[in-house]
Amino acid sequence: MSGSWRRPVRPTGQTQPGVPWGPFTLRVPLYHTCVQWPELLQGLLVAGATGLALVPFLMGPFELSFEEAVACVFIQAVLLSSTPILFGEPYAPGWITPALPLALAFVLAQHDGVDVYATPSEKFQIMTAVSLDFSLLVFVLGITGNEILRAAMPDRPDERLDINMNRSHMAMSIRNLLMGLLAPFFPTQGCLWTGVHVIVVQRWREGRQVMDSLFGGIASYYVFGIPLLYLVRPLVTGLKPMMGIALSLTLVLTGFACAYVAMGIPRTQIERGVTVLTAVALAIFSPWVGMAIGIAAVLLLVGIRSPDLSASGS
Q1: CB neighbour list of residue 299: distance below 8 Å, 6 or more residues apart
Q2: Of 53, 44, 75, 74, which is closest to residue 240 (Cα–Cα)?
Q3: Spans of all domains in the chain
Q4: What is the pTM of this model?
Q5: Which element (helix H / strand E) includes 110?
Q6: What is the pLDDT of residue 15?
Q7: By the number of CB atoms within 10 A of the CB, which of 59, 118, 168, 174 ranks highest?
Q8: 121-128, long-range: CB within 8 Å, 24+ apart, which pairs?
C-alpha cells in the first residue's frame, strides 16, 4: 500500500501532470500539486477576507441575511478557484474590480426618483442577466493575455506553461455561466486577480526549489478550492468589522499591479510620461476629457508609428 500513493513527477521542461478532460486539465490538490505554505497562509486570510468584503453589498441592496450573504460568497469563491484547479488555467482568478461601482450603480439605478429595480428579486434577476450576458461575450469575443506570465516564463525553463487563449475563453465562460446561475454577482467573474498573480509568479520565478509548480502556488493561495475561513463562524463574525478594509486592500493591490503591467508596455521615456499623464487626466477629469488629453498627448509627443517601427524602437 505504501507505493500506491505516489505523486506524479514533472519531467524537466514539461507541463505539470494532471488529468486531461476535453481541452482542459484537472490537477488534484495534494496529488498533482504540492502545498506551498506561504501562499496557503496568505490566501487563507487575504483571499477569504477579500471575498467577505462583498457581504455588506449583498446584505444591503440585495437584502440577504449575514448567513445568506456568506453562503453566496462561499459559492462564488469555490467556482472562482475552479479556473486553475478544474480547468488547468495558469492564472490567479479574481474580480473585475473596476466594474464593482459600475455594477452597483446599475443595480441601484433610479428613474424620476423611483428605483428601476425595486425589489431584491428584481436586483438578482438583472444581475443574473448581466452575468449570463458576460459569459456569452467572453465565449464569443474572448479575453486579453497576461504580460506578467510571459515575462516570467524564461526564468523557469523547467516548467512549460500551456497558454491557450481559446481554452481560457471556454473555461472562463463555463465558470461564469455557473456563477451566473448559482451566485450571480457580475464583478466577481473576472479572469485575473492581478495583485495575487504578481505575488505568486514572482515567487515561482525564483526556481523550483522555492515553488515546484505555478499551479501549486495558485491552488494553495485559493486553499485548494475550499474557502475554509467561511466555515468557521466565530472567525467570520470576528472579521465582520474588517470587511471594508479588505476591499480597500484589494483595490490598492490591483492598482499597483495594473500600473506594474502598464508601465512595462511603453518602450521609451516619452511614452512612459504620456502613460502617466493620461492616467492622471483620467483620474482628475471626466472620462471623455481624460481620454481626449491622452490622445492629444500621444499624437503631439509620440506620434503615429507603424507596428514594425514601434516593435524595434527603444
Answers
A1: none
A2: 53
A3: 19-265, 267-314
A4: 0.79
A5: strand 110-111
A6: 95
A7: 168
A8: 123/61, 123/62, 124/62, 124/184, 127/103, 127/184, 127/185, 127/186, 128/180, 128/181, 128/184
